[in-house]
Amino acid sequence: MAVPSLPKSAQRMQALAARRDYAHALTPALRSDLEAKLARIVLPHLIGARIIAFYHPLKAEISPYPILAGIGADQKAAFPWFLDRDARMMFREAPAVTPSPWGVLQPSAEAEALAPDLVLVPLVAADRHGTRIGHGKGHYDRALAHLRESGTVFTIGLGWEPQIVEDPIEADSWDISLDAIATPAEWIITK
Question: What's the predicted TM-score (pTM) here?
């Protein structure tokens, strides 16, 4: 897994390779079982959230869709939405049905824009203090900073167990710390 003494770009490359190798080694049945375990861990922590932001997973990312299947009828689901590659990430009401500028599914442009009070954040890597490494474009950090300017938002990083590093990751000034992290094996409060 990522070695914190390396530059963040090298940590990211190492962590992406480790995540890919781990996910590719899972059988479809085991992957489904682990994602169901993740949902059982996370769902009790979503009680009280009105609008929950999910993400459409990349191939090696753990899927939040089993969590989405378990939310309450009074809760709304949102997904990241981009007008173009240079636009700030927004959240629009689910489902994710059209390709984003990167080809990942996102809601349609006509879907209601929402301000989530809880955001499920995909990980490349994270430490137990809530510092995460993402894909390096800063989309989540900018979106979360904007949401926190306008109110309270709780963040939960989602990942496979090998994505959690024991040594602290050095945070950049723009990094938004996660409030909690969940894997199929544990719930980590970071603050």
Answer: 0.92
